[in-house]
């Protein structure tokens, strides 16, 4: 093997830039050997630079950095070396080592400086199971007089508290920062998103006192996607254009994701089509966007285009394709893709892929097949797969299998709130109130809480959130007055409240009162009193929508867009503006009852929408068949009745009041 002759001086090493590749470890060793031969290894500056370069170059080189550091005589060690080892360890697979070096640093009598704490806090952010470590570091920061004086320390503290889901403390640190640059604002916004406080993230962006950068826009787009805040999302897009920010692939992908999750799939596709330099992630996000909007044909067509363009699908891409198959009820296509993943794409199926297929089978009512799939694969010990099957059991009212699935979930995750609540519901449906009380008592004793259902709606760029029975809103009186009007209207149309999901042993009247004040109904009422007639209301709920709310939404004839668990549902609106996602018509033939002139007018209206969406599928918790069965037309109003089947064992009729322009 030919050796490389390296002539090096201590000055060259101390002035050199770090060598950032793990392949340079051999080069580091040659430098080390040269310094040992020349005696320059005993120069503190030279040795410190070598330790720093090795420690921060690549995690795989950290072991050699440890060796260098441990062999360094105590008199030659300094704070710079310790900071280098703390930094390297913070980014390694074992961030606890950073804390060990910090303790050694204190024992050796070195004072931590403003470079020490950011690296340490980064390490503590990666070990949130020990929150006391970061909290004690915060105390040290205060004790040594660094708080509020160094923006990097303030930013690191905000990120640390976000990592342990303590945004109240993060906000206090932020508020005490005298100089709030874009970095600390980004840390606050990202922290809110990490803690699923998306509305707070959006509010922070609205009051941000410095211009945002790409990281800001990426974070805000993510928050708005989860909120369904389309109006503010459009403002963010305009902000990017107005400030001539570079529309990178990452930023465009975030905006595409935001538009898709807000139900504005045309805007997502428009941006996608006009972006040069697409990468696999952008293709995958666009495919997933079609999938969650119920546009399976478009998702599969785009998947074919992606492969034709020479892109190799990754795991995320295939998850999106399987999701499209699931929402469209394409059982055989989904199973075929799962079977061929390894052979065709060299990708072994993961939990996410199997979860999509379990969901696919569950939506199609093939619960036994879904159970067999879980039992057959080696990943059956994953609670997510059982959770997907539990959802299907709930939809199809298979309480016996659901009880078994919930118990399997609790074996794997004893504190799973969803499984316990389902068991409680099963027992309540059977009138076993003693067992219901046992489940609830156990949850209370073990401090297991199900997150409360909440719904949000965006109006004039502000996101309003509601909880069930919420009376905290400033317009509460008007909201409940409108809610009473809605209830009266739907009752006049024959609606009877579905109360079987109320699992309290109370009389029927009280149960009806419970379901009438669910968060999504409050959001609808608020939207109706604050928007013009015919406006589309976009409502986002964090949990599954209940059966009664689903029925009420279909009977409310204002344009409603309700998103639940990344599945869209729409109910009535102007046919020229309605973004049909979950309720859609298969336009195979026009109604025979219509005159030729009216048929031409209707055909023109429908064709405009059809040309944009091509194929529209309906998903109401499972694959559903929808047919347009009658139309009466008078040039002013079009009344369409649609028969909807497949909502569990429920069969309902939808009356759509469609006004055209």
TrEMBL record:
Keywords: Repeat, Transit peptide. The keyword NADP does not apply. One of its GO terms (molecular function) is RNA binding. PPR repeats lie at residues 78-112, 279-313. Gene3D superfamilies: Tetratricopeptide repeat domain (1.25.40.10). Pfam families: DYW_deaminase, E_motif, Eplus_motif, PPR, PPR_2. Residues 494-569 form the DYW domain. GO terms for biological process: RNA modification. The keyword Transferase does not apply. InterPro entries: DYW_dom, E2_motif, E_motif, PPR_At4g14850-like_plant, PPR_rpt, TPR-like_helical_dom_sf. NCBIfam families: PPR. This is Putative pentatricopeptide repeat-containing protein. It comes from Ananas comosus (Pineapple). The lineage of its organism: Eukaryota, Viridiplantae, Streptophyta, Embryophyta, Tracheophyta.
